Amino acid sequence: MCAMSRLRIALLTHSVNPRGGVVHALELGRALHELGHDVTVFAPAREGEAMFRASPCRVVLARVDGETRGVAGMVEQRIGALKRVLLREDASRFDVLHAQDSIGGNALAELKEKGAIRGFVRTVHHLDHFDDVRLAHWQRRAWQDADEVLCVSETWTRTMRASYGVTAQTVANGIDRARYGASADGDTETLRARFGIGSGPVVLAVGGIEERKNTAMLLEAFASLRAWRPSAQLLLAGGASLLDHDAYMRGFLDRAAKLKLDVGNRGTPVIVTGALPDASMPALFRIADVVSMISLREGFGLVVLEALASGRPIVVSRIAPFTEYLDDRTCTFTDPHDAAAIAAALVEAIDGASSIDFLHAVPALLRRFTWQASALRHLDIYSKWLAQSQPATGTQPCQSCIS
Length: 403
What we know:
- The protein is of the alpha/beta class.
- It has 2 domains: 200 residues, 3-Layer(aba) Sandwich (Rossmann fold), CATH 3.40.50; 185 residues, Rossmann fold, CATH 3.40.50.
- It has 15 helices and 14 strands.
- The strands form 2 sheets. Strands 3-2-1-4-5-6-7 form a 7-stranded parallel β-sheet. A 7-stranded parallel β-sheet has the order 10-11-9-8-12-13-14, with helices on both faces.
- Helix 3 links the parallel strand 4 and strand 5.
- The radius of gyration is 22 Å and the shape is globular.
């Protein structure tokens, strides 16, 4: 047994809310923990906030106090909170410090610059365009100063190489199939009553009302769907985001009013649930007749795997990264810029006329994406990085011990 067989790993994420990067950090942490490693998850949080999902790992919350002005002020505050708690926790004692986003990446970049840590790993889920100079700088620094850059899809690995000259490595997401299986039916009637969900069909979209999620185009498609099936309801779940989507939300609500589609939190054609308890999400998928993910930009799209693991057909944008791991046997593709095409795809999926193969192709797809496989891939990358970065006289980890 080598001296570093049990790695001390710090995983940093930007909030305690149910977003893709936070899920990735928690589930990766769980898988690494189950493989015998000592994992601590760090996340900024306001007073009274807690991590949305329980974890077997130690979770350290970096308390964020006081008000801020704008997104840049909020980001700066969270970077500072993570820096303080990492210094308090003696960040240098971790073998691996791994940030899932720009907030954690900048906290680690500043500690690296001061010599408080040797280096860090950064996962790029996707990149955004920011007009604010500070936000653009922070986004760039978070991957530019990292010692290893990972991406959750080949699409973004290629983008990092082609656009920024970064040699990134791909480490895919996973899915907890048991969590979204048949046992998730238990809470469906409670949720139907709570949100006033009728006979349907029900179209579910997860991620709130955001430009990146293409929610306004989904609204246009849903209006066409209602002409075909007047009892149809659009369920918009989640949406706990640190970014400012107020202008897009106002435009969405204005357009819904013109389409004569009432938007509310119960019994309306368009139901906005807001953030839900994590335990309710599997049942919410089981309520849907079809799940829509017609995003304009995604890092991977965890909702796709969650929907399929729930036995629900999914309509997705015919764009990368979806085209990287999906085909016509596992989803219904559509043009995310064409409302009529989206509506037709939703109808096809609801009617059972799609070619999605839940007997063979979907189970095969889900078997490809497990959190254990993701954790083992991470460990391989960690071990090679540690071997390269250790001082010549230091103890180096052996591949067989950490995996």
